[in-house]
Amino acid sequence: FLQKFDEEGNLFIVYYGGHGTINSARQNMWWCSREPESPCVDWSAIQTLFGTARSDVLILLDCCAAASSAAGMGTGTMEAIAACGWGTRAPPPGQYSFTNTLIEVLEEWACKPSFSAAMLHTEVLFVLKQKRPERGRDGRLLEWCATPIHWVYTGDPKARGIEISSLRGDREALGGKMVDKGKQRERAYEELSGVRSTAWVD
What we know:
Blueprint lengths: L1 H4 L5 E7 L1 E4 L5 E4 L8 E3 H8 L5 E7 L15 E5 L15 H11 L5 E3 H14 L3 E2 L5 E2 L6 E4 L10 E3 L2 H26 L9
Parallel strand pairs: 1-5, 5-6
Antiparallel strand pairs: 2-3, 3-4, 6-10, 7-11, 8-9
């Protein structure tokens, strides 16, 4: 994937929602289930590959111990937003989950021309804070939300942050260029054949 698509100007968004733990080496592991023999992936090892990418990389993690994926400073532009700390559990799927809140924010921001990863983290944090505790079976008020964490992987204090922009304007511009090229081909055909075409490109 990296060999095929990695180039400057691209943005990789890596999202994971599922089971996660911190292992004895203090690294982040992903699991298919909670069963002891469940297949697992050493995400921290894979993440190292993205740290050397020429593309920008935004990592979104919704799993327990999500912040255990934090690593040392890399050479590329990479940021992460994790659902919770390395010693805490992420809320289960539902209204209090990181993923659910992320979707709420992205739907609300669908018409924004652009926003940064830091802004996205701040808004998700704010929306989660508004979700009030609910009473548990014993009648006590319980806080169901976890605090999302944002960090960057660069050692350059002047490095730019990741910006997420709408492609709608780019698509419209590309569509206009395609129409112009179509009209140019029509005119060239008319000049060569001496016959006026009634076709057009829309």
